[in-house]
Amino acid sequence: MKTTVFVFHPDLTNGSRVNASLAKAASEAGFEVRDVYHMYPDFKIDVAAEQAVLEESDRIVLQFPIYWYQTPALLKQWFDAVLEYGWAYGSTGNALQGKEVILAVSFGAQREDYQLEGRFHTTVEEVLKPIATIQYHTGLLFLEPFVRMGALNLSDEDLSQQVQKYLEVLSMK
Questions:
Q1: What is the mean pLDDT of each run of 10 residues along the chain (173 residues)?
Q2: What CA–CA distance (Å, rounded) separates 90 from 75?
Q3: What is the pTM of this model?
Q4: How far is 18 from 20, CA to CA, in rounded Å?
């Protein structure tokens, strides 16, 4: 099974401890890791190249932080450009049928903040729902997301444990 990790972090090298650690571990474990912001700093996505990578992948991992309760801007643009009508969905759009997707998402705040009665009055599931809904147009199979809460305050030990869990998720058959 070919697993490809698409990392959407605006400053993976200098601005991310959690996503950088996860991406580095995945790469060192032999998974293809694509730093999409590094590849497309001008937001001019090579649609054909991205579609080719998706076609070659059995499992697609979308790794990103949540910003203002949404995906980073380039991920939204990537969805809009790459998941084209006639390719990803529509009467002839079946290129992604049956491919697995794992959302690998980091939240800065704690899980208790993401409860209906919590600080933000919304849940993790509600925040991720618009992304998961893509499966109903594309035939993608969304697996259980890999969600990291409290990314702003993870200890080195907790981060190390999360990296190991991530590698387990990426390696599952």
A1: 97 92 98 98 98 98 95 98 97 96 95 91 95 97 96 93 97 90
A2: 21
A3: 0.96
A4: 5
